[in-house]
Amino acid sequence: MTTPNDSSARLATLAERVLDERWKSSPPEAASSGIHAYDGQLPPVTRTSIESRLTELHAALADAQAIAPDGLAPQEQFDRDLLVLGLRSEIWELSENRSFTRDPMALMWPLEATAYMDRSYAPVEQRMASMATLMRAVPAYLDSARALLEPPFAKPVLHQAIEAYSGVASYYRGDVAEFAEANLGLTDGLDVIKAAEEAAEAIDDMVAYLRSHQSTANDDFAMGAERYATMLSLGEMVDIPLAQIEAAGESELRRHQASVREAAERIAPGKPLAEAIAVVTKDHPAADKLIDETREMLEEIRSFTIDHDIASVISDVRAQVRETPAFMRWAFAAMDGPGPFEEVATESFYYVTPVEKHWTPEQSEEWLSNFGYATLKIISIHEAYPGHYVHFLRHAKAPSAISKVFGAYSFWEGWAHYCEEMFLEAGYGDGDPKLQLAMAQEALVRVCRLLCSLRMHTQGQTLAESEKFFQEQAFMEELPAKTEAIRGTFDPGYLNYTLGKMLIYKLRADWQAEQGAAYSLKAFHDDLISHGGPPVPLLRKHMLRHDDGVLL
Asked: Are 58 and 377 within 8 A, CB to CB?
């Protein structure tokens, strides 16, 4: 007979085994999580290693499912459910979805080395030695990666992969080499420079390989409805019919379009919408003030978060505002937080992408138009307070190793996106129509992601039709609309920004109804983000006394 203590002990032993096997199969994830015993290692990417990993996963899943949840404490039940979901999701990815066979970028992420340069978790000479080890392993890693790929590739995916790998080669020859040159007085400086160039040459070969398949590339990027639904079921615990998700997205589209038009009328009464949008985009920091003014803006937003009881900010340490590293400058802004197990280099970096020195005045102005003060505030709410940065702080305090490791796309991005609208609802900006327009425009982009992702991958919508949809429905210019549409071909999960936001709003309403007079926004937020980054449907079972299972 199994006792509750037996169940708890079995789960603890299994969790330790699962994480140990996970780090060995994916050393870069271990390193980025703050487990530095795996620094400098690249993952094995062969058919044999994948089969071996699947054997481990199936054994772990059987052991997890054999642990009776009734014998566990509430947090342990939560961990068991999260573990089962994570194991099933990885099994599906490796055995059925197999994105690594058709998307070269699925194999690219281990090549990133910024943490070795930016995070002072160890003496610089130790980090440089790890970098040299990683760089020396790149040629063999890419040889194995090519052996897994199964051309022909989809045209937009191939195009983006060529751009992405080319960017990594430039990053090795630029940022990595410059870092090594700046530390030539230390052991391994010359080794890093040499290894970085050899790695960049191997990436050049990868780019040449990808280019060689351009003539056979096709338009077949769609997952299909069955795989798409499985992606949502295993990744997000969302089993809602796709038609219901689409209908909810269409409702959000209409709501935010109305909000844009209402704000525009207040900004420029009787004028075309484009003129109101121009008022917002033209009011931006000067190129040489962008970083400094963003830093000042964060203090204001942080103070509002604390003073208006939005969420607990559990550290006085500020996110450091920095220029985006060269290889990441496809993004306007991004938050780079420490891994949940990091004990030394716990700083976070809020990257903001500056004007490039070689740009013309016209190009610089076009870029800075994306950083209108109102839009930059919305971005900073998303990335820092109370969005990703505040979440990072709580993630490091999550109650178990399992809750620090396993999570959901829809929670991570859904929380940050939810914060944008919630912050204005809580009174930030005192009803400023510029902020309302900026928030609603950002929301429209995310809603169009949801609708285009669904329609491209399950209904045959073309890339060109998606580009047009972003332009017409989110009021975007041609180039950013094209970029957004292309992303959907290889990142169908980008529907999760809006999906996660809707799931959180529904959970908030249900939690408030249960709490009654005891409800507070801060209490809800603190509870919500204290569990790591799990699927919202799992959180509902943990946070609500009576979960009716209605997600939207």
From this structure: no
| CB burial readout 370-387, b (16+ within 10 A) else e | ebbebbbbbbbbbbbbbb
User: 218 phi and psi, to 5 degrees?
Assistant: -130, -170
* Cβ-Cβ contacts under 8 Å for 334 (sequence gap 6 or more): 324, 328, 350, 351, 383
- Whole-prediction pTM value? 0.96
Q: Which residues contact 498 (CB under 8 A, 6 or more apart)?
A: 249, 252, 414, 417, 443, 446, 447, 449, 450
Residue 1 has a pLDDT of: 43
Residue 237's SS3 state is: coil
Residue 60: name the closest of 101, 16, 112 by CA. Answer: 16
Q: What does pLDDT average to over the chain? A: 95
> Which pairing describes strands 349-352 and 320-323: parallel, antiparallel, or unpaired?
parallel
Greatest Cα pair distance, the chain, in angstroms, is 76
Phi and psi at 320, nearest 5°, equal -85, 125
Both structure tokens of 223: 């997952």
The sheet that has 349-352: what strands, in order across it? 320-323, 349-352, 333-336
Instruction: Say if CB 266 and CB 433 are below 8 A apart.
Output: yes
Report d(CA 386, CA 383) in Å as an integer.
8
pLDDT tens digits, residue range 90-109?
999 999 999 999 999 999 99
Angle at 65 between CA 63 and CA 68, to 5 degrees: 105
What would the mean pLDDT of 312-333 be, rounded to a whole number?
85
∠ CA 423-426-432, rounded to 5°: 75
Inter-residue contact 524 to 512 (CB < 8 Å):
yes
CA distance 522 to 308: 9
- Give the pLDDT score at 184: 84
Please list the alpha-helical segments (H only) found in 399-495: 401-405, 409-425, 433-458, 463-473, 478-490
DSSP for 238-255, written as a single string:
----HHHHHHHHHHHHHH
Determine the pLDDT at residue 255: 98
Asked whether 175 and 325 are in contact (CB, 8 A), the reply is yes
In order, the DSSP letters of 246-301 are HHHHHHHHHHHHHHHHHHHHHHSTTS-HHHHHHHHHHS---GGGHHHHHHHHHHHH
Distance CA 125, CA 40 (A): 13
Give dist(CA 417, CA 381) in Å, integer. Answer: 9
Q: HSE-up of 387 (CA within 13 Å, CB side)?
A: 28
CA–CA separation, 168 vs 8, rounded Å? 45
pLDDT tens by residue, 207-248: 999 999 999 999 999 999 999 999 999 999 999 999 999 999
Q: Residue 438 pairs with which residues in a beta bridge?
A: none
- From CA 361, how far away is CA 32, in angstroms rounded? 38
Q: Report the SS3 class of residue 40.
A: coil
| β-bridge mates for residue 154, sequence order | 218
Residue 500 near residue 252, CB atoms below 8 Å: no
Answer for the pair 375, 280: CB distance below 8 angstroms, yes or no.
yes
- Residue from 39, 12, 37 nearest 28 by CA: 39
Kindly tell me if the per-residue pLDDT of 25 is higher than 80: yes
The CA distance from 243 to 246, in Å, is 5
